[in-house]
Design a protein that fits this description.
Blueprint lengths: L2 E2 L1 H9 L5 E4 L3 H6 L6 E2 L5 H4 L9 E4 L4 H12 L5 E4 L2 H8 L8
Parallel strand pairs: 1-5, 2-3, 2-4, 4-5
């Protein structure tokens, strides 16, 4: 499983090296906190909405703690998406290590 740490992602975003950010959490979770410019496709909709994603893009998938996003990343790889990474530890890790002002839940 390819992963990217919150610190690695932050470094890339800071230098304007922006992968496609895919948020697979539930609607209520996205209202609490999210990464800027992320596209929200809840995990239960992934199978019917994959056509919205470009298999050529570098995609970083995230959720609350990295479990659901890891499953989605694996699923996308099985469909032929080559450059998919899971955000290790999810947004909870992001909030703890990169952005302590982000709301945690």
């Amino acid at each position: 499983m390819d992963q990217i740490t919150p610190q690695e992602l932050k470094t890339r975003l800071d230098r304007n090296d922006r992968p496609f950010l895919l948020d697979v959490r539930q609607d209520w979770e996205t209202r609490l906190c999210r990464l800027e410019n992320a596209v929200h496709i809840p995990i239960e909709e992934i199978e019917v909405r994959t056509e919205e994603l470009n298999p050529e893009d570098e995609i970083v998938v995230y959720c609350h703690q990295g479990v659901r996003s890891a499953a989605v990343a694996t699923y996308l790889r099985q469909l032929g998406f080559r450059n998919v990474k899971n955000l290790a530890g999810g947004l909870d890790s992001w909030a703890r290590t990169v952005d302590p002002s982000m709301r945690r839940y």
